[in-house]
Write a structure and sequence with these properties.
single chain, about 325 residues, four-stranded antiparallel beta sheet
């Protein structure tokens, strides 16, 4: 068997030398780190492949024709290096930052993803990526099955089927425990969205006859029911972007049109939250008014409170009263 393997390797030596040359260039080179024909030949010999400078030059040319961006650097420290790649280093840094800051990805899965992203560049640049990674002390989900959940949800949407799952809540022991005694929720999945560093399923709940959302990292044992999705018409009239703008922390509530009076310095806060289409009407030299639609919830009132005295709810009067009651209830604890 071993002899057969040796014979096969010898007969495919030219093909393997080409593939190993590409692997070496992809892993070991970048603009700051070039390798010459002698180094490439030595690498091939380490893998029991016959190589000389002439065949190395030929292999490099074949790889160029294949589309690999191999650049030759002149001078005493010259040689070959891979230029353009599928991902440039700044793009990889951006993706690594997104992975390590995402609360819905566990520590273990974050480390796996970053390791895979690091393979998209040279070894030296991968070291630079890893030196900038800080995961351990970040807030992360404890649900390791989230990636399987996402895969199951996307597959169900692709097959136009409903899903069932258990829903969890974090207990005092910091572990995820099922709600409603482990009863399964049955919904029609229509979209996945990312809000405030969490991943949410947007689905139609037939029993409630409405669109609801669920934290994907709190979903357990997701599976398709085999039944066709329903609620397409309801979801068709559902504006996900508008929903995200008017809700706070994805806590839904009664929609209301509300007028705010804000200090001019808060213009950016309003635009960031409600979009560029809001109308900011001057109110004196230092303030402006804006009317927006929000889903009323304690999270919305908390957002107003966090901004402080620079923002005031002007109308309607009943929301002003609800906000005063909200503040009184909080103050009663102190």
């Amino acid at each position: 068997m071993e002899k057969d393997h040796i014979r096969a390797k010898k007969s495919n030596g030219g093909k393997l030398a080409l593939l190993y040359t590409m692997k070496y260039l992809m892993e070991e080179t970048d603009e700051e780190h070039a390798v010459n024909a002698t180094q490439i030949a030595a690498y091939l010999r380490e893998h029991d492949l016959t190589a000389d400078r002439r065949t190395t030059y030929a292999n490099v040319e074949v790889l160029r024709e294949f589309g690999l961006d191999i650049i030759q650097k002149e001078g005493s420290t010259g040689g070959y290096f891979v230029g353009a790649r599928d991902f440039e280093l700044p793009e990889l840094k951006l993706l690594v930052d997104a992975v390590q800051s995402s609360k819905f990805i566990t520590v273990r899965k974050s480390e796996q993803l970053i390791r895979k992203l690091s393979q998209c560049t040279s070894r030296e640049q991968a070291r630079a990526l890893k030196r900038e990674v800080f995961i351990r002390n970040r807030v992360k989900t404890v649900n390791e099955s989230i990636f399987y959940n996402v895969d199951s949800i996307y597959e169900a949407m692709h097959q136009d089927e409903q899903i069932s799952f258990q829903y969890g809540v974090i207990g005092l022991d910091k572990k995820l425990k099922v709600k409603k005694g482990g009863a399964r929720y049955v919904v029609s999945p229509w979209a996945l969205t990312w809000d405030d560093e969490n991943y949410y399923l947007v689905a139609y709940d037939e029993a409630a006859d409405k669109i609801k959302h669920y934290r994907v990292d709190k979903m357990l044992k997701v599976r398709s029911t085999g039944e066709s999705r329903i609620g397409g018409e309801t979801y068709g009239n559902f504006d996900l972007a508008e929903f995200a703008r008017k809700t706070f922390g994805m806590y839904g509530g009664e929609d209301a049109s509300i007028t705010l009076r804000c200090q001019n310095a808060l213009a950016g806060v309003i635009v960031d939250r409600f979009g560029k289409n809001v109308i900011l009407s001057p109110d004196g030299e230092d303030h402006f008014q804006v009317t927006v639609t929000v889903s009323l919830s304690p999270q919305f009132f908390g957002w107003i409170t966090g901004i402080g005295t620079g923002m005031e709810i002007l109308s309607p009067a009943w929301i002003r009263k609800e906000y005063r009651d909200y503040l009184r209830e909080i103050m009663s604890k102190y």
